[in-house]
Each structure stands twice: as structure tokens, then as C-alpha cells.
Amino acid sequence: MxxxxxxxxxxxxxxxxxxxxxxxxxxxxxxxxxxEIITFVAGFVKLALVIKLxxxxxxxxxxxxxxxxxxxxxxxxxxxxxxxxxxxxxLVASGLWxxxxxxxxxxxxxLKEHSQTRxxxxxxxxxxxxxxxxxxxxxxxxxxxYEMLSLSTWPLVTHHQDRExxxxxxxxxxxxxxxxxxxxxxxVIFTYFxxxxxxxxxxxxxxxxxxxxxxxxxxxxxxxxxxxxxxGLMPFHSWLPGAMVAPTPVxxxxxxxxxxxxxxxxxxxxVTEVMGVxxxxxxxxxxxxxxxxxxxxxxxxxxxxxxxxxxxxxxFSTIGQLSYIVLGIALLTEDGMVxxxxxxxxxxxxxxxxxxxxxxxxxxxxxKYISQMAGIGKEMPFTMAAFxxxxxSVIGLPPTVGLISKFHLVxxxxxxxxxxxxxxxxxxxxxxxxxxxxxxxxxxxxxxDDVAASKVKFSLKNINEAPLACVIPLCITAVLSIVLFVxxxxxxxxxxxxxxSVTK
Length: 504
Description:
With 504 residues, this protein is mainly α. The protein has a domain at 285-504. The chain is built from 21 helices and three strands. The chain has helices spanning 10-19, 21-27, 32-57, 84-110, 116-134, 139-157, 163-194, 213-227, 239-242, 248-275, 277-283, 286-305, 310-331, 334-365, 376-379, 381-395, 402-416, 418-443, 451-455, 468-486, 489-502, and strands at 5-7, 62-68, 78-82. The termini are close together. 59% of the residues are buried.
């Protein structure tokens, strides 16, 4: 049965909410309190509009809104179409933007960062682009907002404006624009002509019924996977650790939620609604993507083990976790696809907690290397407790939501190929190997690690946490990881609803 289509202007206002805040942010650049109030108001308005859209689509309906008719002679409008996948991603991004805005205040003020007004302005712009991707109703709209996000986040990556930041920014744009223009754009053009001008996400795959052969199908699939390189598949992954030169709030939201999730979101759209399950299964083209993602999962986890810089370890962990999502959707099994979509939310809350903790440690102590953090749990018990919970979620252990998404991923892999299931299990052990020692030595340092740290005892006098504006957000997201384990209903239902719609 075709879904009910609801025409509404709400998607436009949801996207514009953060965009319209930018003039106020710039006007009150010399009044930090008012500037940040505007940021929060925009965040809550955006979330409220997204929640309203959720109630419109939760029963399987879709919301549509045309922005423009075809441009430059292309017979494809700029169109918003919100389904269960889009609203899931929008809920995650808009909800965590509010938490990150609070964290940004503590972090930026705590370090007396320069150009805070520019930071908040581009942060707001990037969230508009993110929702544009989430709400995209066809491949053209998706591509345009994807590029908008790349350009709007570049000033955030290069925020410090030093040599390292400029180098990271060049790598960031080179990879993201280079792959999108070199791979994704030709793939979009090929799809446009092959489908007779149809680029719409309508629930039926754009290329359904096309006979392209196994080689062409596999090449097109990988062009999309590598073209939307925010997904972090190797070898086009170096931009992500390079972008860790950005302030931690940027790393937290954009590289744990918005930017990287936009990459895997686009891959999910292309696998399910451009190529289609039937087409990929008919020639086994999805096997190529499965093994590329599986390779990325293992290799990135091994590299993470060797990283002493905490943010770089988190960056390589993110690369592996993104490949979980790509591998899950490439399995084309029901459980694998549900786990893939669910992992968008599960990884977001777990990994943003870890990035928040890394930034709080830096604000409070100036430390950014793991080898310096022996005994830090006695000084920062709330931060390191949250780090432990975030680690559990990313590893996929109870009582955190990561267990739910990973459980579905493992079941989906078992249905497809036992070797792929082993990849998930080995990766889980590697995740534990690079997270648990951090937590253990933070609370139970060896005397050989740090003599001074080993003598520190738990005491209120010894607590040296970051500002409350940093600590409260990381506690919120840590608790959220547990809450979503107990009550995953909203996100799990949306994931199942989406998978049902593309496998009917």
C-alpha cells in the first residue's frame, strides 16, 4: 500500500530555524549572553518542528514540500520528502545540537577561544544543511545539500587558523569535494539518464528493473559509496582524523553526528532507493561494498589501538563505526538493515559523549594524550564515568543502546555470511581493547604510570571537573545512552518502518 502523502511547509521552517538565527548571532556578537540565547531558541524551535513532523510520519505517512521546480534545465525539482529514515536522522541531529550548544559555551569560554560569534554562526548554518540532507526528496536535492554541508563546516574545521588547522582544512575539502565531484556527481548524472530523468525517492528504487550487468552495477554502487566520502570508507578516510584539529564541539556534533552521519545516510539512500535491494541482490553487487566496509572496520580499529592522542583514537573509532552502518545496509538482510539505521542514533549518543569527555579533559587539565591521563578519574569522576558509559555504547555492551543496534547487525551478518559476523565480533573485541584501558588507568593508575596520580585519593577537594556547561551535556548524553537501551521504541520503530518500506 502506498504511503499517505501530506503536503506541508514545516520542513522548510525546520531547516530555516537555525539559518534565521544567524543574523541575530551576528548582531549580538558583542553580547555573548544574548548571542547564545538566540542559539538556544533556534535549537528548541528546530527540535519542536522536527518533533511535529515526527508525529505526522510515525504511522508510515510521508511529508512532501517542493522548494523549486527543475533548475538549469534538469527535470528534477528541489524537493523535501520526509519519511521514517529522514525523521530519525533529523531527531538525532536537532536534539543533539541543543546539548552541543550548551557544551560549546563551556568549552569556548573555558578556553577563551577567539571568533566565537563566527563559530556559532557557521554551526547554525551547518545544521540547516544537515536537515536539508535528512529531508531531501530526490538525489539532486541530496547532492546539493551534501555539498552545502561540506562548505559550511570548513570554517569550523579551520577555526584555530593556525598551520595545523589550515592543513586539516585543505585535507577536509580536498577529500570531500574531490570525491563528491569525481564520483558522486557522475553517478547522479548516470542515474538521471539511465532512469529517464527520474531522481525521486518514492519508496520504489529509481533503478528498479534496469538491466545493467554486475560490473556496471557494482561500479555505480561504489561510486556512490566513495562519492559520499563523509561515510569514511577506506581509502578515502584521512579527512576525518585530519579534521580533529577543530575545536571539540565541532568534533563532537559534526564528526560524531552531523557530517559523518550525512555520509552514511546518503549511502543508505543510494543502496535502498537509488539502486534497490532487488537490483543489487540479482547480481550480488552488494558483496563488494560488504567487504570494503568490513576491511575498513578491522583496519581502522587496529589503527585506533596505536593512537595516543585521544581525539585521534576517537576519530579512527568513528571510521570503524561508520563502516558498521555501511556494512549493515549492504548486507540487504532485514536485521542488518534495521541495525544499520538504528546505529545512526546509537553511535551518535555514544560517540558524542566520548568527544564531550575528551574536550572536558582538555579544558580542565590541558591534557589530550591518553598516556597523560593515568589517575584522571579521581580528579574528574563524572567525566570519566560518562566516558565509561559512552565506551560501553560504542562497544555494544549493556546497559546501553549500542547493544541493540549491534545485536541486529550481528544477526543480519549471520544471515548473510558467517565471516561477516566474525568481523563484527572481532571489531567488538578491538573496541574494548582501545577503550577499557583508558577507563581502567583513569581510576586505577599503576605507580609506574604516574606516581603523583597513583597517590591521589577520591575526595571532594581533589575534584577538578571542567565547567558545568561542559559536564552537564556529557552527563545528559551518557544517561541518554542508557535510556535508549531501556526504551528504544521511537528509533527502533522508525528503523523497522523504513526497512519494511524499501523491502516490500
